[in-house]
C-alpha cells in the first residue's frame, strides 16, 4: 500500500533502501582487543594517546571506543629535539600477555624503541631513509657553497680587471 506525499510515493512498510547506521563486524577479529594510537590534538599539532580499543572492526574514531589509555606520544620535537613518549609497561604487558591484544605497527615501533620489544624492522628502514635524505641535503649544501664561491671568485676577477684602467 502506497501513500502519496507531494510528488513521491512512500510505502507503508519500511523499505530496503533505508539503512541503519551500523558498523560491520568481522567475526575473525571480533572480541580481540587492539592497541593503537588515538589522535588527540589540534590542527598542525598532533598528539596521540596509546589506547586499548575493544575491537579493530569497531573503529578508533570516538572516545567511547577506548577501553583504557596506556600511554601518550608527542610526535613533534620539543626544544631539546626530543619526541616524548610515556608508556605504562605494566598495563601493556597485561593487555598483550593476558588479553592477547593486537598491536598496531606504529605502537610496535614505539615499544621496540622503548625496549619492551625488539626493534621493529620499519624503524631501521625509516632510519636508513633519513640518513640518505640528510646526506643528500649536505651534498646539495656543499655544491651550492662551491658554486657561490666560484661566482664570487669570477666577480672579483672581473671586477679587478675592469677597475684597473690606466688614465
TrEMBL record:
Xref: SUPFAM superfamilies: Ribosomal protein S16 (SSF54565)
GO molecular function, one term: structural constituent of ribosome
Subcellular location: Mitochondrion
Superkingdom classification of source: Eukaryota
InterPro entries referenced in this protein's UniProt entry, alphabetically: Ribosomal_bS16, Ribosomal_bS16_dom_sf
Single GO biological process annotation from the record: mitochondrial translation
Protein name per its UniProtKB record: Small ribosomal subunit protein bS16m
Record organism: Caenorhabditis tropicalis
Amino acid at each position: 500500500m502506497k501513500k502519496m506525499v507531494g510528488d513521491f510515493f512512500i510505502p507503508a512498510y519500511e523499505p530496503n533502501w533505508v539503512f541503519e547506521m551500523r558498523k560491520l563486524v568481522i567475526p575473525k577479529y571480533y572480541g580481540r582487543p587492539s592497541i593503537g594510537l588515538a589522535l588527540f590534538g589540534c590542527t598542525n599539532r598532533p598528539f596521540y594517546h596509546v589506547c586499548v580499543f575493544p575491537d579493530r572492526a569497531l573503529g578508533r574514531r570516538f572516545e567511547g571506543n577506548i577501553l583504557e589509555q596506556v600511554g601518550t606520544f608527542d610526535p613533534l620535537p620539543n626544544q631539546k629535539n626530543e619526541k616524548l613518549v610515556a608508556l605504562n609497561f605494566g598495563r601493556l604487558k597485561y593487555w598483550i600477555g593476558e588479553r592477547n591484544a593486537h598491536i598496531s605497527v606504529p605502537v610496535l615501533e614505539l615499544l621496540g624503541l622503548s625496549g619492551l620489544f625488539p626493534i621493529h624492522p620499519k624503524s631501521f628502514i625509516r632510519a636508513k631513509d633519513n640518513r640518505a635524505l640528510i646526506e643528500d641535503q649536505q651534498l646539495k649544501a656543499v655544491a651550492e657553497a662551491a658554486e657561490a664561491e666560484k661566482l664570487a671568485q669570477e666577480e672579483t676577477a672581473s671586477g679587478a680587471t675592469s677597475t684597473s684602467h690606466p688614465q
